[in-house]
Design a protein that fits this description.
The complex is a heterodimer of chains A (121) and B (136). Chain A is an alpha/beta fold and 121 residues long. Chain A has 4 helices and 4 strands; from the N terminus they run βαβαβαβα. Chain B has one domain: 2-Layer Sandwich (Heat Shock Protein 90). The mean pLDDT of chain B is 92. The chains are: A alpha/beta (121), B alpha+beta (136).
């Protein structure tokens, strides 16, 4: 199944901290050869366009490094606000909670393997 | 309409955006805003505070609580930056001169009950949003 990285964001991040997380995480995916990244944002009270962009960037960068990203735990008020702001987080997989996110990661990673195998036959 | 309180916060460094978010959250909660309305006004404040720094070169936020007949929170972001030559264009989603997504100004407008912008090229920009408390 391969390694998964778990990230819990627990502080109200200023922009540079968000960028640092994005860079560190991308490096970590490469260093650990992780196949999946689970980002728990249940503690975040808002997701503005900057944090939304960071989540999208992490998903895109991890995909390039052959890892899947799932964002979990978004508060309903945050989701409502994010959509009204104009962000749909296209390209970012989401799940309600950590358990559901792990299941999604497992099936995504296994699904990719099977897909690759099948294409070789 | 009565002004209940007014306070001014500097918006100069990135950390000031975090401070502004926190203060707006406290004020909105104190006024009895629902969680969704709190989240909307805090998110709008975050976008506008960031704009003040990135596009305006820093400035300030005035936060005012309003009462009677409606309860609301009015936030004014003011800078002495280069100004916005074409406000209509700046409000369009996806338009950006910075490194963002271009959702800040238009997004903040959608998240507010009322939105006003005044800008003079070479002199600065002033954006005011008001979020009224939803009547139950």
């Amino acid at each position: 199944m391969g390694r998964f990285l778990l990230v819990t964001i627990q502080v109200d991040m200023h922009d540079r901290l968000a960028l640092a997380l994005q860079d560190d995480l991308t490096q970590m995916i490469s260093d650990t050869e992780a196949r999946g990244v689970l980002i728990d944002i249940s503690s975040l009270e808002i997701v503005d366009s900057f944090i939304g962009r960071m989540l999208g960037n992490i998903a895109a960068m991890s995909r390039v490094l052959d890892a899947e990203t799932v964002v979990v735990g978004m508060q309903p008020a945050v989701a409502i606000t994010l959509v009204e702001l104009g962000m749909s987080l296209a390209g970012v997989r989401t799940a309600l909670n950590v358990d559901a996110g792990m299941e999604l990661l497992k099936s995504a990673v296994n699904g990719n393997k099977q897909g690759y195998g099948a294409s070789l036959q | 309409m009565a002004l209940l309180s007014s306070e001014t916060l500097p918006i100069r460094a990135e950390i000031d955006v975090v401070t502004a978010r926190r203060r707006v959250r406290d004020l909105a909660a104190h006024l009895g805003f629902s969680l969704v309305d709190q989240t909307k006004v805090v998110t709008a404040a975050s976008e506008l505070a960031r704009n003040t720094i990135i596009h305006g070169g820093g400035g300030l936020m005035v936060a005012e609580t309003l009462n009677g007949p409606r309860t609301g929170l009015r936030l004014t972001f003011e800078d002495n930056g280069p100004g916005i030559p074409d406000i209509e264009l700046a409000l369009r989603d996806g338009f950006t001169t910075g490194s963002g997504l271009g959702l800040g100004l238009g997004g903040a407008k959608r998240l507010a009950s009322e939105f006003q912008i005044a800008s003079r090229v070479g002199q600065g920009t002033k954006v005011t949003i008001t979020r009224w408390k939803w009547r139950e």
